[in-house]
Amino acid sequence: MVSALFIYSLRGELLISKHVNNIVQKSMSEIFRIQVINNLDVRSPVLTLGSTTFHHIKSVGNLWIVAVSRSNSDSAAIWEFLYKLNALLKAYGLDSEKEMKEEFMTCYELLDVILEEGVPVDTELSNVAARMSVKPKIGIESFNSFAESIGYSTDRIIPRSRLLTRRTSSLASHDSLHEQHSNVPWRMIGIKYKKNEVFLNVNERISILVSKDGSILRSYVDGTVEATTHLSGMPICRFGLNDALSVTTPFDDGPVDNMNKKAIPKAAAGSVMLEDCKFHQCVQLDKFQNDRTINFIPPDGNFVLMKYHVRENLNLPFKITPTVTVSRSSSVDYRITIKSLFPSKLTAKDVQLRIPVPPETVNCQLSTSNGKCKFVAEESAIIWKFSKYQGLTENSLSATAFPVEDFQLNIDQWPRPPMSLTFEIMMFSNSGLVVRFFDILDKDKNYSLVKWIKYISKSGAYELRY
Amino acid sequence: MSDQRIFSKYKAHEIRSELQQGNSKKHRASAIKRKNALKKIVVNLSMGFSSEMALLFPEILQYWHIDDDMEVKRICHHFLVAMAPTKSANFQEALRLVTEDFNSGNEPLRVLALRTLSSVPISTYFDECRKSVYMVLNKGSESEQLKKTALYAARKLTQMEDKQSGAIINFLHQIMENQKEKPGIRANALYVLYEIQETTKTLQTLTLDFDTCMDMLELLPALNEWDNSRLLDSLTGNYIPQNHSDAHYMIEKTIPQLQHANTSVVLNAFKFVIYLTNYVDFLMESLVKQLSASIISLLNKPPELEFLVLRNIILLLIGREKPILSVDVSYFFVEFNDPIYIKDTKLEILYLLAKEDNLSQILQELKEYATDIDIQMSRKAIRAVGNLAVKLERCVDECMNLLLELLDFEVEYIVQEIVSVFKNVLRRYPEKYEICLFKLIHFTDSVQEPESRGSMIWIITQYSDHLRNYLELFQSFTDNFLNEALEVQFSILSSVIKLFTRNPTPATEKLCIDILKCSTEKSDCPDLRDRAFMYWRLLSSAQQSQGSLIDMNAVREIVDGALPVIALNSHLDPQIVEELELNIGTIASIYLKPVGQVFRLNKPRRLPRSPAFNSNRDGIEVISENSRSHSSSLTEKSSGSRPRRKSSPVKKMEDYDRPAETINQLKLKKKTSSAAMNLTRKPSILARKLSMRKPFA
Q: Region Disordered: what ranges (chain B) (predicted)?
């Protein structure tokens, strides 16, 4: 599948070149350098020349990771593999040019472990670590969540919660080369903890787009359930959500009856329509298919248990009402109210509304009911910030943006980029998703389990036009 | 000696002397030195100086023994693999060392040794390799890792030497069918078999019967993600359902995999299911729903994977009359931070999904893009509107109105693009000129780019009957004839001929002759000259001789005949679609081109025929869950089925409103925050800004 694997520095110096059975000419690395790295206008993440294809990604540490293939390979597998490799390199502290130059043999060793004749065999860190002679730089615990966040732009990276960095005394050892393998490819036999703990993090990101007349053009929540397990033995865990389909019969068109009713957030009332969810490889998918129960034997440490996507019945946390008018003196008037719709017990953090102004603006008159507000000329925007925002609270802003003197603003020519809001709310779920239970099947009486759960709702692209 | 210097070019003798230095004393420091020298070899190999490094073969053999260190061994094996193409005589000596390594108790070393054995194209290595492969695979106690290595070594053996491959293939079949073997090994054995038949021209396709296929699918829960995806890949096209119920059963078995987190597993499951739908008599509505939902949820993967998924969505949308996906357009609205390749692909999907009922939503969105700051995007959005007008006959007015509305912005590149686009719209709907013609003409002077100029010339010529001042308008193009781009010159040339034949007045005649003269005498381009001469002769022969075959009417017919109506065809050839659907998730699915065109090494794939094969793929009924008892009359049942749920009705922000408990009132005083105030702190920027405001005062 992969005929050769190259890793380049940002400037294009070849650091690693791993050839599989010599069918790729040595000059191929040169071709990639010329065609992609030295080419400023790269418009595709894949390049095919003749019948040779280069799939490439750029790592967080600014390395180019490139897979070369000679036939019609599985692109999905190649890119998934490159991202996994990227995460593993990071785990072994090899994510920058300098480190790679010093420890390149570790990288070759890693490739020997995870690739078999150009075919990825196993990229689960706990298994890889067992075969490597070098220990990873970061703990297995923090690995998977990192692996998931990689590949998103930096603002999407989920800061790791405090909870997860707390370590319980783990007696599990990963350094022995002759670790016994079990029937479960992602979990070793013989893991023991004094205290059995499970941490669940429900992370959600809500994106909406509201048009001028207040109709919602697009709204969805992308969520992940991250789990950190410190469990002894081979526990079979069962996990339950307030998933609408697990309550009623599968594939019954539940919400159809509600079509004519107003689309009121009813998520809190009952259940969530999970449009689709994706599970970690440990989840028994056939079981889920049949009776919507989520059963799994977890890998040790941190992993993303599931990802989901919800479009219906969301809890929108903020309502923004903008009125933007252009006065005769070609200044622009803004009257904006922002109202929080979540319960007053909760507070949102780092709420920031970005209000674009025409690029010719030099001066703004601002007045707000609360929060800090300033005009940032470099970004052509007014930034209105709240470090804390109480639930069910309304605030308003009034502003006038004045353009350069003698400038006749033609409002039609101003593209009016959308306003955007960013925020973070703890213990609130935009989708209304609630974890109903988490338990371990067939456990004996002595097996006590401590469970922690946390919900974090954040803004994705929360935008409105005006 | 710092590690930094490892990463540079060395001569063989330099490294050799370093190695020998290290040899003199046998303590720790020298071992490190030696290792560093060996590392330099690895670096130089990757830099491409393999012929220089080849000189060090004897040294490598010498050091093989000295250190019993895994890293040194790894370097030695790496060296051997890199040197394999040279078939140097030293390999005979190395063979003994490699076999020794293979027979050692250390597992990672055995893996390395087996890989090296399979990589060196020398017959003695093959013999040794074959022996080892059989030994490893026959022994139950060997580790999974080593067995996998053996399987892939077997694949290589069949590629290198043909005469033994029959036996190896049989052996692999046995492993695959061996119930006692570990699931991971069986799945990989199947994949290796599939790869072998895929790359070997002479072999028949691997055909699996129902029981084997079932057996393999049962393994899925016990496999890791990569084996999972390869297993599904190998089943596609190799298991041929013999009747409808088998196919249904398999689909049911595969569906859970659509929930997997790994894109490759999902797309391969997708491929297998789509393949199986060619052998069923009906489709469940829930299946369509699940397929759509699962592919949509892949869209929040990293951009490269998202791109791949989007391309595959295009494939599934254009492949069939009745697409097997039912997806909501709003998923494909462009986000401002999408990379350019994703933006392009999303636009394409929006175009494909456009129907009469969602057009207004899409147009609204395209309008936003058209006024975007990103010029590329803006142009593409305008193109898309034009294409939609051509595609959807009943909605053409809506599209044209949007274009005209955008024209009011009078932004230069928008004007260029809109004028270019209108040519196609008017060719499709010649009678629609009234609403746009006069507005367009207004921009005659502002069209700059060759394409938009050409388009404007065409529009003026085409509707010259309705334009009283067409000659005036035309003047702006002909005045500067020689400086125009070649394609504009061509359109001016053919337009003046058209105008003359349509309306032979002294003014048009003069224009015509001027241009003909100019093109024949002053132009350097032979094509333009040729074409001008051709027209000239045509005209003169028509005018001169009464008895000739050609008269003025015939000329008119030739140069100004009715144009065929254009149509956009976004559908691919069914044969190509058939092949691409067997290649979902692969590189070919990105380019949407037949595999053979891009990759000569791959065999073309076709849907195998069987009694259950459905030749009319668009004829498959999609039935809803309510009508499970479909046996009696399919058509009646399906017509009775409820139409698929569309995206929910448009929601309003108001619906989510609730009363606020606290309302903070505005503070009365307004404070001023100005750019100038910020800038005064940075005098240089301020100076620059001011100087830019009044450039040449």
A: 606-697
* Distance of alpha carbon B666 from alpha carbon B650, whole angstroms: 33
What are residue A269's phi and psi, to 5 degrees?
Answer: -65, -35
Amino acid symbol at B486: L
Distances (CA, A) of A365 to A397, A403, A441, B548, B666: 11, 12, 63, 82, 13
Instruction: Please tell me the distance in Å from B397's CA to the nearest CA on chain A.
Output: 22
Q: Which residues contact B98 (CB under 8 A, 6 or more apart)?
A: B77, B80, B113, B116, B117, B125, B128
In this structure, the dihedral spanned by the alpha carbons of residues A31, B598, B115 and B94, taken in order and rounded to 10 degrees, is -60
What is the C-alpha to C-alpha distance for residues B577 and B585, in angstroms, rounded to an integer? Answer: 14
Q: Which of B45, B337, B660 sits opposite A393 (nearest CB)?
A: B660
**Residue B125, pLDDT above cutoff 60:** yes
Q: Which residues pair with residue A296 across a beta bridge?
A: A237, A283
Tell me if domain A162-315+428-464 and domain A318-426 are identical in fold: yes
What is the architecture, at CATH level 2, of domain A162-315+428-464? Sandwich (2.60)
pLDDT for residue A167: 35
What is chain A's alpha carbon radius of gyration, rounded to the nearest angstrom?
Answer: 26
Cβ neighbours of B268 in A, within 8 Å: 74, 76
* CA dist., res. B430 & res. B428, Å (int): 6
| Tokens read off for B104 | 């050692």
Q: Do B656 and A264 touch (CB under 8 A)?
A: yes
Binary contact (B598, A377; C-beta < 8 A): no
**pLDDT given at position A261:** 34
**Residues B5-55: pLDDT tens digits?**
777 788 888 888 877 776 555 566 777 777 888 888 888 888 878 788 888
Q: Which fold has domain A4-123?
A: Beta-Lactamase (3.30.450)
CB-based contact (8 Å) between B380 and chain A?
A: no
Chain-chain contact of B264 with A76 (C-beta, under 8 angstroms): yes
- Checking if the pLDDT of B457 tops 80, the result is yes
The model's pLDDT over B95-121, given as tens digits with 9 standing for 90+, comes to 888 888 888 888 888 998 998 888 888
Q: Are strands B282-284 and B621-623 parallel, antiparallel or unpaired?
A: parallel
Residue ranges of the domains in chain A? 4-123, 162-315+428-464, 318-426
pLDDT tens digits along B551-585: 778 888 888 877 777 777 767 788 888 888 899 99
Distance of CA B205 to the CA centre of its chain: 27
* A318-426: CATH topology: Immunoglobulin-like (2.60.40)
Among A43, A73, A186, beta carbon nearest to B587: A73
Q: What angle do CA B206, B212, B218 make, to 5 degrees?
A: 130
The whole-number pLDDT of residue A77 equals 94
Q: How far is B52 from chain A (nearest CA, A)?
A: 14
Look over chain A and give the mean of its residue pLDDT values, rounded to a whole number. 79
**Which residue, A4, A1, A7, is CA-closest to A107?**
A7
Q: Which tops the pLDDT comparison, A299 or B572? A: A299
* pLDDT at residue A187, as a whole number: 81
Distance from CA of A123 to the nearest CA of B (A): 9
Q: Is the dihedral of CA B248, B251, B253, B255 positive or negative?
A: negative
Percent of the residues in chain B that have a pLDDT greater than 70, as a whole number: 88
